[in-house]
Amino acid sequence: MAMQYDYFSAPTDDIAASLIDAPGGPTQVPAQPNGTPAWDTLSVNGVEPSVHLVELEEIMTGVDFNDLLDTPRAGSTLHSSADNEAIISTVSDALQAVLADATDDALATVAVEWSHSEEFGGDANPVDIAAFLHNLAGLARRARSRGERLYCWVSF
After folding, report:
1. Cα distances (angstroms) measured from residue 39 to each of 50, 109, 143
2. Strands 149-155 and 4-10, how do they pair?
3. Quick check: 57 and 66 in contact, CB under 8 A?
4. pLDDT (tens digit, 9 = 90+) per residue, 119-134?
5. Out of 9, 10, 46, 131, which could bridge 15 as a Cys pair, Cβ 3.0 to 4.6 Å?
6. Taking each helix axis from N to C terminus, what angle separates 52-61 and 104-115, rounded to the nearest 10 degrees?
7. Which of 106, 102, 94, 109 is nearest to 138 (CA)?
8. If pLDDT is split at 50, 70 and 90, which confidence band does 6 have?
9. How far is it, in rounded angstroms, from Cα 121 to Cα 130?
């Protein structure tokens, strides 16, 4: 089974952590009675928060990758399931802010550089990366407008 990554926003760490045992992750939580999704989410394959997003933050902010690893919330594990088959990771506030402020042109430029990164094996499709970045930036903007932070539910 492939690893599943669901990026989502939540108002607090405790609320985000409460999703740890949601079968199938936040994308599978039943919609509200009015049909609105329960969580603002973005599902993706192969974009791991503690590696790929730290490199993305390096590209977008210019802060060295190794320095970012010591930054609070940069892909840190917030909570893990009792069976260790799922974790909730944090996304750094700095990355959320730079994504929320990024223009489409800036995201397209970052996508090209990021697609050639070592973490993607140097050959990811820049068009796919740009689409993911556009969607992640949208999630970051919506989260900021609600005073929320970004997280990632990872299933092993």
Report:
1. 22, 29, 11
2. antiparallel
3. no
4. 888 778 999 999 999 9
5. 10
6. 120
7. 102
8. very high
9. 17
